[in-house]
Design brief:
Chain A: Keywords: Signal. The complex is a heterodimer of chains A (447) and B (352). Chain A is of the alpha/beta class and 447 residues long. Chain A contains 15 helices and 13 strands. Helix content of chain A is 43%, strand content 13%. In chain A, helix 2 crosses helix 12 and helix 8 crosses helix 9. The interface between A and B is large, with 53 and 40 residues.
């Protein structure tokens, strides 16, 4: 009996030890480029996670199936569940980084991205925070490996304020108006507090910023405060379950839904459908349109979903905002690799080489059309010192069944924002003792 | 050999002068931890497993002093971790020339002071009522750290960056360096905790836990003992918070120290074994390391069949079932379970 027990525990220990020593599933075949995905398919933000990572994987899969990879280099990926929690994200980073040929990281979480900045800079691998992230990482002089592609939080804020201005008949009409920002109680939510204060001072409107603690499924107190404050507009800077709850609570407290403007993480079908009628007439900013009529989405349906190889469980979500964002993210990552391959050769690239690709990621409208994404997103123009890439935004209104675009492609006020960003990034560089890069450093690439 | 086997290992050693054999196992563990592990470990082992394990173990040691030994249930551990982390960050940032070691001590003292304040209800409340009142610490600290951006140096998103880890002129860099940093602090404080529980103060803790009235009658200063338990436990938990933020995550935001973390630390000592020092380490191993092993094995075996979300849910179910199983097998926790297994094995050897 005793012998058996000790044997059993030895066997258990041995099998557990095996779990650590066995190499990762992804085999080290020649010419593969790997995407480690810190995804979240459970927890309060699963809707965003499944949609975004579903779209991302679908696009990578499309490139493999249709084109046989990027110039013959196959794309691979592996997932680590984070539940949007920072320490799980860090654990997943440490676990997945040993995969060969890592191209870039796409955590889709500001908290996890912050925790990774030191690590990826040391490991020389790009960190992509599309439409979110740390605003001053836009400054490639200080953050060589971080890319808040398309839209950083300050540009988003500028876009929203400009849109409200245009609704009121010009930015000068903002004077004396009152705007409430209802933000998610997380690093992501707080990122824009200073820029709203600054724009309020510049344009003469009054701003009140109210926090909703994570995850945000109870907002009675916040909306009562809003009712007392009687603002002209409420900007909803939410995430996950916070958004439908905000729309429903707004309806309950009698705040008109057409005066609520959602930010780029409050703009999905998953945010409005659960709110039912309370969401009809709600407007939100976006960098990529929703809908399945774009050629690239159609190809994904034809090549993957019709063969039963799509990543989304629910086919109704194909072409939804998060799914399309994942596809756009896939396009940007793949094109960065393609651009880097033109310089370094059609083979597995190092993280630093892919960084070079991202720093030359320039897709004009013609190239976007050639990729089958015309009107899905506008264009991008990343340079070594501008890691955002001047993305354009548009506004969409929910009509109860689908999002309808209600504005042209709008450019945020980049010239206004750049000095603020540089001030912040230079302070960071000073604090951390980082040498500010020059254009000459861009071509210094580690193999 | 037979001398080594004589006394049951599970008996709590309360003598003032522990004999040499008490130190054999801890010394072996230390030699392995300091000498062998860094020689063979991968960076994932340090960054992904050992650093959170060490930080949570230390928090467990701290809470075990309060809950296991002194019998005061607390749900505010994560708050004290947060106080430690943010205090260390601010001392390091705002006091010029203060070495990191000084910041850590001051951070621990700050956490101890906060712990003392939130320990005051323990003078009147017991059991569940005290647990509920320590919740106040949890909510208040998190609120204060979020509300006043001064604590995070006016950083826009409320996230702070960790400074370089320098102790006595030596900078701990890389995964192994941070591991040594954490291991050194954990060893020192665990030793301190061990000395404490075998001292008169430790016996006072146990007396207060087992029967407050009796303790008062034999002349133990009950109020002072309780408050001291809160202070010393918060000190250790505060330093654990520093390790969590600076050595492990290297970034910290208040939301990372939420109620879930407090529960995690409480469960960790219950599963590991209340009123034992090593129980905190067993418990942390089960709570931190085991889910990772499960996820590794799960991904290896079922990775192609299910997506990571399904696997993650399955792991929770397995972990939950295992915890129930362990506690049924041995309500006194893993420390007692392992002691019993060891006895059985020894018994088997002696018989044969």
């Amino acid at each position: 009996m005793t012998l058996f027990r000790s044997f059993r525990s030895t066997a258990l220990a041995a099998s557990l030890a095996l779990g650590f020593t066995l190499p990762n599933v992804a085999s080290a075949l020649a010419d593969e480029q790997h995407f480690p995905l810190q995804s979240y398919r459970v927890g309060p933000y699963a809707a965003g996670g499944t949609g975004f990572f579903g779209g991302f994987i679908d696009y990578l899969n499309l490139i493999n199936t249709r084109d046989g990879g990027v110039n013959g280099v196959k794309l691979t990926w592996s997932e680590g569940e984070t539940q949007y929690e920072v320490e799980r994200g860090v654990e997943a980073y440490e676990r997945l980084k040993s995969n060969p040929g890592v191209a870039a990281w796409n955590p889709l979480s500001v908290g996890i991205a912050y925790a990774m900045i030191d690590r990826i800079t040391q490991d020389k691998t790009p960190l992509i925070t599309i439409n979110h992230g740390r605003t001053d990482s836009t400054d490639g002089r200080v953050f060589p490996y971080v890319f808040p592609l398309l839209l950083n939080p300050y540009s988003e804020t500028s876009g929203i304020v400009n849109y409200i201005g245009s609704k009121e008949g010009g930015l000068e009409s903002l004077k004396g108006k009152k705007i409430v920002v209802l933000y998610h109680g997380s690093p992501y939510g707080k990122e824009t507090i200073p820029i709203y204060e600054l724009l309020a001072k510049k344009y003469g409107f009054e701003v009140q910023q109210i926090e909703v603690p994570h995850p945000g499924n109870e907002q009675q107190a916040q909306w009562l405060t809003i009712r007392r404050a009687k603002p002209d507009y409420v900007v909803l800077r939410g995430w996950g379950v916070m958004n439908p709850v905000a729309l429903k609570t707004a309806a309950k407290t009698g705040f008109p839904v057409d005066r609520i403007i959602g930010n780029v993480w409050s703009n999905s079908e998953e945010d409005v459908i659960p709110a039912g009628d309370a969401a009809k007439g709600y407007t939100a900013i976006t960098t990529q349109a929703s809908g399945a009529e774009y050629p690239v989405v159609k190809e994904i349906v034809k090549t993957l979903y019709d063969q039963g190889k799509g990543n989304l469980d629910d086919k109704k979500r194909i072409g939804s905002v998060y799914h399309n964002l994942g596809i756009v993210n896939g396009i940007l990552n793949v094109e960065a690799i393609r651009i880097a391959q033109q310089k370094f050769g059609k083979r597995t690239l190092t993280g630093d080489e892919v960084r070079w690709g991202f720093e030359h990621l320039q897709l004009d409208q013609a190239r976007v059309e050639a990729l089958g994404a015309k009107d899905l997103f506008h264009s991008i123009h990343v340079t070594w010192d501008n890691h955002e890439g001047n993305g354009y935004v548009t506004f969409q209104q929910w009509d109860g069944a689908k999002w309808k675009v209600v504005s042209d492609w709008i450019a945020p006020d980049w010239a206004l924002l750049r000095p603020i960003i540089e001030k912040s990034s230079e302070a960071y560089a000073k604090e951390k003792g980082i040498k500010i890069r020059t254009a000459a450093d861009v071509d210094t690439v580690t193999n | 050999m037979s001398v080594l086997l004589d006394t049951p290992a599970s008996a709590p050693n309360l003598s003032r002068t522990p004999s040499l054999k008490t130190w054999v196992w801890p010394l072996i563990v230390l030699v392995v931890a300091f000498g062998l592990v860094p020689a063979f470990g991968t960076s994932y082992l340090f960054e992904g497993i050992l650093l959170p394990f060490l930080a949570l173990s230390l928090a467990g040691v701290g809470l075990n002093l309060l809950t296991g030994y002194a019998g005061q249930v607390s749900l505010g551990s994560a708050a004290f971790m947060a106080v430690g982390a943010f205090a260390c960050f601010n001392f390091n940032l705002r006091v010029d020339g203060l070495p990191l070691f000084g910041s850590i001590i001051l951070a621990g003292l700050t956490a101890a002071a906060v712990g003392l304040v939130f320990g005051l209800p323990s003078l009147r409340l017991r059991g569940f009522y005290l647990a509920v009142s320590t919740l106040a610490a949890q909510f208040f600290v998190q609120w204060a750290l979020t509300k006043f951006s001064w604590f995070s140096n006016e950083s826009a998103s409320g996230v702070i960056d960790a400074p370089a880890l320098t102790l006595f002129g030596f900078t701990f860099e890389g995964a192994v360096g941070r591991y040594y940093f954490a291991l050194t602090i954990v060893t020192l404080l665990t030793f301190l905790a061990y000395r404490l529980v075998v001292s008169e103060v430790g016996r006072n803790f146990i007396a207060v836990r087992d029967n407050e009235t009796a303790a008062r009658i034999i002349g133990i200063p009950v109020l002072r003992t309780k408050l001291f338990a809160f202070a010393i436990s918060s000190f250790i938990i505060g330093v654990a918070g520093v390790l969590w933020a600076f050595a492990y995550l290297r970034t910290v935001e208040p939301a990372g120290f939420n109620l879930d973390r407090s529960f995690q630390i409480l469960f960790l000592i219950i599963i590991g074994g209340l009123a034992t020092i090593r129980g905190a380490f067993y418990g942390a191993a089960l709570i931190v390391v085991f889910p990772l092993i499960l996820s590794r094995l799960g991904a290896l075996v079922f990775g192609d069949l299910f997506d990571s979300g399904v696997l993650d849910m399955a792991q929770r179910i397995v972990l939950g079932a295992l915890i129930i199983l362990f506690l049924i097998l041995e309500p006194d926790g893993l420390a007692a379970l392992f002691a019993r297994i060891r006895e059985k094995i020894r018994g088997g050897f002696l018989r044969s």
